[in-house]
Design goal:
Elements: H1 16-29, E1 35-36, H2 51-61, H3 76-87, E2 99-102, H4 105-114, E3 121-126, H5 130-140, E4 146-150, E5 156-157, H6 159-168, E6 172-178, H7 190-202, E7 206-210, E8 235-240, E9 253-258, H8 264-279, H9 285-295, H10 300-322, E10 328-330, E11 338-343, H11 359-369, H12 376-388, E12 390-391, E13 393-394, E14 404-408, H13 414-434
Length: 443
């Protein structure tokens, strides 16, 4: 073309979670039965919403007001409801104007990063949810800046690594925390959150906390909302209904802004986020109107507890089947509905395989894994998919140097769930034994 029209950060926009679906679809056409354990969509995995919840949405769909624009920040009654939930805890106090709705949390993420000055960086976890790392890298036109989550310590943040990154990179202006975490399923204790807040205050940073899985904690864990801990620190909490209700197709998420009045630069930045939303007019009206009715319904806590109990049971079934597999580092999932498993260093190489009976499938997979630059865990994931039909996501696609895979805990059929994880355990064992590692080919 006459000019280079490609954005400087275009190369950072990757989303392997959905990209691998294209490969799975090709394998389906070649006769492979698949278990899609890659995307965190409870509805796609058979979650049935209760009748009372559907009645709320159906009733709203009969009201003409659900079809019109709402205020740019969002439906006022809903923002008042959410505001009261924060304020009644007696910590940070906000107003309805401190809440802005978006078309899903992905929209919010891109607005929050996109309105930053290009030179201002957000230090995020590694591994991290792809939408965050892609948005941060794309905004800056560089690789994302990250701190390490430690698979040998429950996937908790390495605070020393975080501190060094902040100290020696003056461009870092904020720290991102995802709690409960995607992709690891970790739930951070209060002491870790307080350490991160203290670091932000020490270096005059603001904090972003993605809390979309906040009410999905189990195995005896719980976590405080970041609004109860930040004190006077400028911060943003990201929330939504796609995972909790769950209603991912609603595309309805919001941010809560804390202490914007404490820093004029932060206040101006928040105004720019609102201005960018104003250009789009507003977010979808109907799901916003449903939020207070659903979250305040007397059956909602019961329904939520049933889901937590199921994820707890399945997280333990998964952990028990993988924890003793040689070559893996496995942590029990305590929140959200994902498990991230890391291979021990040096256990993967570019020669390992799994048996594939279908000749066409084997040819397709070998073409994919032998392309230049294919990570060793992506190679394993492709072989696992072709050999067993189980579709997971390589951890390397979550902006990390670790090698492993992320899998959901969403399969509702317990017998099928157990079969999936038993199959993975057998496949890992066979894969790692297929070729003896040597220093010439180890990662």
């Amino acid at each position: 073309m006459r000019n280079n029209i490609v954005h400087i950060g275009a190369g950072e926009l990757t989303y392997e979670i959905r990209a691998i679906v294209e490969i799975a679809d090709k394998l389906k056409k070649l006769g492979i039965k698949t278990n899609m354990e890659n995307i965190g969509d409870p509805i796609a995995k058979g979650e049935i919403l209760p009748a009372w919840m559907k009645e709320i949405v159906a009733d709203l769909a009969q009201k003409d007001c659900s079809y019109g624009y709402c205020a740019t920040r969002g439906v006022l009654e809903t923002r008042e409801f959410l505001c009261e939930q924060v304020n009644q805890r007696g910590k940070v106090q906000i107003t309805p104007d401190d809440i802005i709705f978006f078309n899903g949390l992905g929209d919010a993420i891109h607005k929050v990063y996109g309105q930053l000055k290009r030179e201002a960086r957000v230090l995020g976890p590694s591994p991290t949810y792809s939408t965050h790392s892609s948005a941060e890298g794309a905004h800056a036109g560089q690789k994302p800046v990250t701190y390490r989550l430690d698979p040998d310590n429950n996937w908790y943040p390495d605070i020393d690594d975080m501190r060094l990154s902040v100290k020696y990179n003056p461009a870092i202006s904020a720290i991102l925390v995802i709690n409960p975490d995607n992709p690891t399923g970790a739930v951070y204790p209060e002491r870790i959150l307080k350490e991160i807040i203290a670091l932000c205050k020490e270096y005059d940073l603001f904090l972003i906390c993605d809390e979309i899985y906040h009410n999905l904690c189990y195995n005896g864990t719980a976590t405080r909302p970041i609004s109860d801990l930040v004190g006077d620190l400028p911060a943003i909490a990201m929330k939504g209904i796609s995972k909790e209700i769950p209603w991912p197709g609603s595309r309805c998420g919001w941010i809560e802004i804390y202490n914007a009045d404490k820093d004029p630069v932060f206040a101006r930045y928040i105004q720019s986020i609102l201005d960018s939303k104003m250009v789009e007019v507003c977010s979808t009206t109907l799901p916003q109107k449903a939020i207070p009715k659903i979250l305040s319904h007397p059956q909602y806590p019961v329904y939520l507890e049933e889901r937590r109990n199921r994820y707890e049971k399945f997280s333990n079934l998964a952990y028990d089947r993988l924890k003793d597999v040689p070559g893996l580092r496995v942590n029990r999932t305590n929140g959200a509905f994902y498990m991230s498993v890391a291979f021990e260093k040096g256990r993967l190489n570019s020669e390992q395989t799994l048996p594939i009976d279908n000749v066409e499938v084997r040819k397709l997979v070998e073409e994919l894994v032998n392309k230049p630059g294919v990570e060793t865990d992506k190679r394993f994931v492709y072989y696992l998919l072709a050999s067993t039909g189980i579709c997971v996501v390589p951890i390397s696609s979550f902006c990390t140097d670790e090698r492993g895979f992320r899998i959901t805990l969403l399969e509702k059929d317990e017998q099928e769930f157990v079969k999936i994880f038993d199959t993975i355990a057998e496949a890992v064992t066979e894969y790692l034994k297929s070729v003896k590692p040597s220093c010439n080919i180890c990662e």
